[in-house]
Amino acid sequence: MEKNEAFQKMARYCAYQERCSFEVNDKLSALGCSQELIEEIIEELQQNNFLNDMRFACTFAESKFRLKRWGKVKIRHHLEHKGITELQIINALKQIDEKEYLEVFYALIEEKKRKLNESNEYTLNYKIGQFLISRGFEGDLIWEHLRVKN
């Protein structure tokens, strides 16, 4: 595949939805492009503002928090997996409003309590804690809340 054709495909790919360099690299590799060509295309996409890892990280963090109600630990893990730098991850997580984050956290606790039919307080707290950990919330926050509230 020649450079212009690959660039056009990736421009459409990035215009459709926010992407990161890692995803574009994978896509171009799957299309059989050489690593040298991949690097050139990624650089050109960045220069033309089709590709911006910081913008991707912020969009990803915001959407996973708002739509899927993920915690910061899970968001961080997924961003790391996509090759986002530590500084970009920190900045993306700062975009999440702390008050809103805690509101979601408490709402998830209440929803889980209503769904569980558990009379033993220790078992109830354990199950809620495990649920919140699976959602990617911080262990310290979870156990501090469950110890104080219940």
Structural class: mainly alpha
Shape category: elongated
Radius of gyration: 20 Å
Write down how many β-strands occur, each being a DSSP E stretch of 2 or more residues.
Answer: 0
SSE order: HHHHHHHHH
Strand portion, in percent? under 5%
Q: What average pLDDT do the residues reach?
A: 94
- Our count of domains comes out at 3
User: Main beta sheet, described?
Assistant: none
List the helices and strands and how they pair.
Elements: H1 3-16, H2 21-30, H3 35-47, H4 53-68, H5 72-81, H6 86-94, H7 98-115, H8 121-134, H9 139-149
Summary?
The protein has 9 helices and no strands.
Jot down its keywords:
Arc Repressor Mutant, subunit A; 9 helices; mainly alpha; 150 residues; elongated; 3 domains
Task: Walk me through this protein's architecture.
This protein has 150 residues and is mainly α. The protein folds into three domains: 3-51, Arc Repressor Mutant, subunit A (Orthogonal Bundle); 54-94; 98-149. The chain is built from nine helices and no strands. α7 crosses α8. The model has no long low-confidence stretch (mean pLDDT 94).
